[in-house]
Amino acid sequence: MDLRLAAYAVCIEDGRVLLAHAVKPDGNKTWTLPGGRVEHAEDPFDAVIREVAEETGLDAVVERLLGVDSRVIPASERRLPGRPELQNVGIFYRVRITGGQLRPEPNGETAESVWTPISDVAHLGRSSLVDVGLALAQSVPATGHVAPVPIGGLIQH
Prior knowledge:
The chain is of the alpha+beta class. It has a single domain, classed as Nucleoside Triphosphate Pyrophosphohydrolase (Alpha-Beta Complex), CATH 3.90.79. Helices cover 16% and strands 44% of the residues. The protein has 2 helices and 10 strands. The protein has a 4-stranded mixed β-sheet. The two termini are 16 Å apart.
């Protein structure tokens, strides 16, 4: 089994959430939260700020830890054939944008980042991470955990 530790930013302002349009290896795009893999010896707190800057061009500060999500992606559902199942452990932070200029990620997987009305999210092809992050931000559970998001339809791994 592969293991991936990642940090994700939930940026909400004026009823809108900041989403990143990620390009998959097969060329398809999906909406997700700014964020990604925690580098070797990197603190997830620092990783989420770095990822927001890399993917969106924006400067951010962490306001609070929202929670942790752990999901296993079966080998048959991995983007790259032949890979073993993947456990993705995502740490979600509420962040506030403090500056910068919104732009695509240079030479990266993020084609664009957009402030999206929260009411429009349900109609987007998106990663389950978006739903987890919004659920954590809206309910702020004391446990830092929300129910798993079912995969299917517009919601992908």
